[in-house]
Amino acid sequence: MASAENHPPPPPPPPPNGNFKTPLPKKPKVSTFISDSEVQSEFAHHDPSVARINNGSFGCCPASVIAAQQQWQLKYLRQPDSFYVNELKKGILESRTVIKNLINAEDVNEVSIVDNVTTAAAIVLQQVAWAFAEGKFQKGDAAVILHYAHGAIKKSVEAYVARAGGQVIEVQLPFPVSSREEIISEFRKALESGKADGKKVRLAVIDHVTSMPSVVIPLKELVKICREEGVDQVFVDAAHGIGCVDLDMKEIGADFYTSNLHKWFFCPPALAFLYCRKSPRSLDLHHLVVTHEYGNGLALESAWVGTRDYSPQLVVPSVWEFVNRFEGGIDGIKKRNHEAVVKMGEMLAKAWETNLGCPPDMCGSMIMVGLPARLEISSDADTVKLRNHLRESFGIEVPIYYQSPREDEVGPVTGYARISHQVYNKEEEYYKFRDAINKLVDNKFTCKLLHD
User: For the whole prediction, is pTM greater than 0.85?
Assistant: First the structure.
């Protein structure tokens, strides 16, 4: 059982210039890597009756990390005053240092820990709204966002940017997608639209891995285009980033990058990091909750937002220990998850005589698989009802996506399942899903039967 009490002492505070170069904690020495039975033991709290092939929505947390979290909670409850004065800042700095090195940031002060990606987005978009309000940006200047963007992020752009006077332009992306070039081409068109009539594109919001439908976006190429086209700021929504795809802040070159740590990096909810590339502009960023740390930098503002449970922010070193029980650490986990989800996706597409939503090299640990047209999925409402039916009648948890057909299509695939693979998943869970869909088709089931 992992215990926060046994962690090595935290690193010293960074020097005044913030040039914090402490390397990642050493990988724990293990004589053998974690066994399959030990993996299943770590996730024994999962409902065994459910084929949970939807890690992408809420992630997972192993028992050893839960135990470490509980130790932090008890440490706080035993002596809250001492905890806040002597433990909290040091513990959060240690977690930020692990993240800083995992993502190859230049400086630990570029890394803040927040609740989730939606909080991070609000922090960045709040700054954009102020720029419009203070006359730094002109009314009608544009923000570009992918059509695939998560609904909450779209709403955030509407709430902060559109309300402040910005023009919001959606990049219309195809689905299914067959190549990176399709995405790059549509992105260039959106930037051109944003620059029409002498206006400027002030912000580009780019997903690293889109949620629904799920596709790995050619991020480095799009950031490079933004730089060439004079886009002021690039904000990357990577809710599914860390632990799912490779990420390197120096190579990506975005101004802001945020990723949840509770989806693919085994942290308890809710936890995310927000990377802000060091620049004069980053000094204008502030947490949404104003406390006495206001003005001391976003990292410190985020580390203290009042009395609350900070234990998710403190267990990152324990998660680092957990992932290094696997061969290859987090890189090995990502590789095996990708290979497994592609294998299972191809198995399902073959069984249902459908198709994948993108080439295998454009997916991470999730992939879209076409569902049989005979299910007659004809609306977003149908996807919700079918998902509930699979959960309640078959014990299968998987998101469903509706893709409206083109006018020239005959017998089109209009429904796609987004399957995930994480270390706890077993092949039989995907066969269970295959067989459930086949049973529905054999019984001449259609989504119309689920209508009230």
Answer: yes
Tell me, what's the pLDDT at 13? 41
Single-letter amino acid code for the residue at 435: D
Is pLDDT above 90 for 282?
Answer: no
% the chain with pLDDT above 70: 92
Fold of the domain built from segment(s) 329-450: Aspartate Aminotransferase, domain 1 (3.90.1150)
Ranges for all domains in the chain classified under CATH 3.40.640.10: 91-320
Q: Which of 181, 188, 210, 197 is nearest to 144 (CA)?
A: 188
Calpha distance 90→93 (Å, rounded): 5
Query: Which pLDDT value is given to residue 410?
Result: 58
**Residue 76 CB: number of other CB atoms within 10 A?**
19
Least confident of 65-79, 274-288, 382-396: 274-288
Protein fold of 91-320: Aspartate Aminotransferase; domain 2 (3.40.640)
Q: Distance (Å, rounded) from C-alpha 302 to C-alpha 312? A: 13
Query: What size, in residues, is the chain?
Result: 452
| Beta strand 272-276 pairing with 111-114 | antiparallel
Do 169 and 182 form a contact (C-beta atoms < 8 A)?
Answer: no
CATH 3.90.1150.10-classified regions of the chain: 329-450
The closest of 225, 163, 171, 174 to 194, measured between CA atoms, is 171
Q: Provide the pLDDT confidence category of residue 20 given band limits of 50, 70 and 90.
A: very low
Q: What share of the chain is helix, strand, coil (3-state, %, to 5)?
A: 45, 15, 40
